[in-house]
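Hi support team,

I submitted a single chain yesterday and got back a structure, but I'm not sure I'm reading the token output correctly. Could someone confirm the output below corresponds to the sequence I sent? I've pasted both exactly as they appear in my results page.

Thanks,
R.
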Amino acid sequence: MLLNRRIIVGICGGIASYKAVDLVSKLQQAGAIVDVIMTEHAEEFIRPLTFATMSHRPIFSNLWEPSGKAAETHIALAEEAELLVIVPATANTIAKLAHGMADNMLTAVALATKAPLLLAPAMYKEMYVHPATQANLALLRERGTLIVEPEVGRLASGAIGPGRLPETSTLLGAIATVLGRQGDLRGRSVVVTAGGTHEPIDPVRFLGNRSSGKMGYALAADARDRGAHVILVSGPVALPPPYGVEVHQVETALQMRDAVHRFITNADVLVMSAAVADFRPDDVATQKIKKDSSDQEKHEGGLSIHLVQNPDILGELADTRNGLLKHREPGRRLIRVGFAAETQHLIDYAQSKLHAKSLDLLVANDVSRADSGFGTDTNKVLIFHADGAVEDLPVMSKIGVATAIWDRVVSLLSTM
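Hi R., thanks for writing in. Yes, this is the structure output for that exact sequence:
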């Protein structure tokens, strides 16, 4: 996604400028060509050498250097850039950008480039909420600038409020969102499910599984990076929501089913990577079950809980008689991708699920493997196609698996 993409990172004079070092480093590690432009006041907070070391490129700052080469340089930077991201964006620079001023290298490049502009404001809370700053940001939004809203928290002054620079992961997500607008899923709407479900036994206990949600979140992020509108239906996980993705939190299988039914009406693709519980307790206790409780069936010091089967979300969609897809545009097909997490007879079970649920693709993995189980950062999958083809992919990162899956989905969409 970021390999060989030309990105300009503008650094303004604010205390949060030190956080931009990590952003530049992460961009360079991802293969981007990063040019850093610093304002004069930014150099009061952090030395240009630091950014030069992280970007492996020269740093630009002085528009008025004696040789006059900066005038030529700022035009070249502006023409080559695919994205201009300013982090931190101070109130002063935001005001200059809003009113078309070009009195330093950064604002001159901003005025000369046709590249998208992304701003990450960071400042004292009263400066951020001031009507002048908010009016300037509103004006920039009207022109197509993407604003990454600052976080609320403790500021350098010690005050609590809006104005903190977002974490690097959020900034990288925003950058990927902008660069992916013309990707091969642009104009497409996709629904991804992720994580496990929790089926309550009583107010403090539940039946669940070991799914971490990492695979589903990787799928959502990669679809976003390709320009899709992504709806992520997530069970309980310990993962931050991906930037630029519409996230809907659910807990139970029935809630996930309802959410999927609601969102597939306008979707082009459904990827069911969630580990949905097959069963749920028939009767949920309203109070915590105690060891000496007589409300539940007990025998030999144990507890008996009657389970009922949860609906098969993908299986229901395969049954055209129930009318779940009746509100979709005539002739508009929903590409459906399922997952099978198995511990034995992987191929047999996967092929059975593929055909029983009339899926376009089924992604299967052996979760008993150390490099492919729940919670790992890697995955080893086989991809089963509706036409009978089977692909055995090597062990790779979950984002790599996500990319492979979307590559095949894009191919299917191109034939529709």
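A quick pointer for reading it: The radius of gyration is 26 Å. Let us know if anything else looks off.

Best,
Support desk
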